[in-house]
Amino acid sequence: MVDQTDAALDAIEQAGVKLGAARAMVQRAIVGQRDVVDLSLAAILSGGHGLLVGAPGLAKTLLVETLGTVLGLNANRIQFTPDLMPSDILGAEVLETASDGTRAFRFIEGPIFCQLLMADEINRAGPRTQSALLQAMQEKHVTVAGARRDLSPPFHVLATQNPIEQEGTYPLPEAQLDRFLFQIDVDYPDRDEERAILLATTGSANAHVEPVLSGAELIAMQALLREMPVGEQVVEAILDLVRSARPGSGEAGAELNEAVAWGPGPRAAQALMLGVRARALLDGRLAPSIDDVSALAKPVLVHRMALNFGARAEGASLPSIIDGLVSRRLGQPVAA
């Protein structure tokens, strides 16, 4: 038993070193945005999907392309538009005539048959197309012409969404939002970062990135992540935070009950449990801490909650409500 524990700890340490190299390689191409890179890596390492929310021009597309290269994944990109149909992403069967005159259907795979899918401006697609993507995200397979077709593991979706321009968009349904492990907010760079971006991207040479991991190594790390020990104190902190975010639960405060229409379900606790392990592994630590729960509270909860009409009219915001929950329930200072 002791030997097995030692072997697991050694494997976690080795994975941390390899992931550190992957992070450094990604940051050759992505200047700044350390939290965005870490959250994206954590989402993939946890076996989940990420929703990147930010204004145009903040390197969201470049980030996904870079992650595909560094993690050794087959990556595709779909530009979502209102006229996009499910068959455009899933694929379709076509009737072909052979040289001898016989006819048969042949399935042509759509771009969803990859390991890392960038769903660019996902909220511009109609409900039917979003539903097709939802099945793939949750079940890791699609159904075309009544036949099940499995996606090659690992399969991850990093979707982008513009928070500014909402004309001609279809808001993502709550069920699909819940399938995203994290909502990753991509903010503007600070002055020093923007200066570095300016110098790095307007010269004659572009940053070169190389694969650090392979798909098989990533799958092994995802399995290892689920073996990482989590202390009882961290488990209780996750439960306290998630349950206190549900209005009418008996564990929520009066302020939250008055402001929040609906709160996170059990998937939020699952996302936190996996996310804190991933964050620890990325930092080379052998177990997560309550600091990890605090750091991941907003990425996990903000898209799984909704303000009621009165709270929106008064200018309340979900991030500030979540900060208050973290401060009260976890006794953690609110991050700047």
From TrEMBL:
Q: Name one GO molecular function term.
A: ATP binding
EC no.? 3.6.3.-
| Top-level EC class as recorded in UniProt | hydrolase
- Tell me the Gene3D superfamilies matching this sequence: Magnesium chelatase subunit I, C-Terminal domain, P-loop containing nucleotide triphosphate hydrolases
Question: What is the name of the gene encoding this protein?
Answer: ravA
Instruction: Report whether Hydrolase shows up as a keyword of the record.
Output: yes
Q: What is this protein called?
A: ATPase RavA
Q: Does the keyword Transmembrane apply?
A: no
List the PANTHER family.
MAGNESIUM-CHELATASE SUBUNIT CHLD, MOXR FAMILY PROTEIN
Pfam families, alphabetically? AAA_3, AAA_lid_2
Residue ranges annotated for the AAA+ ATPase domain, each copy included: 46-190
Source organism, top-level taxon: Bacteria
Keyword vocabulary terms for this entry: Hydrolase
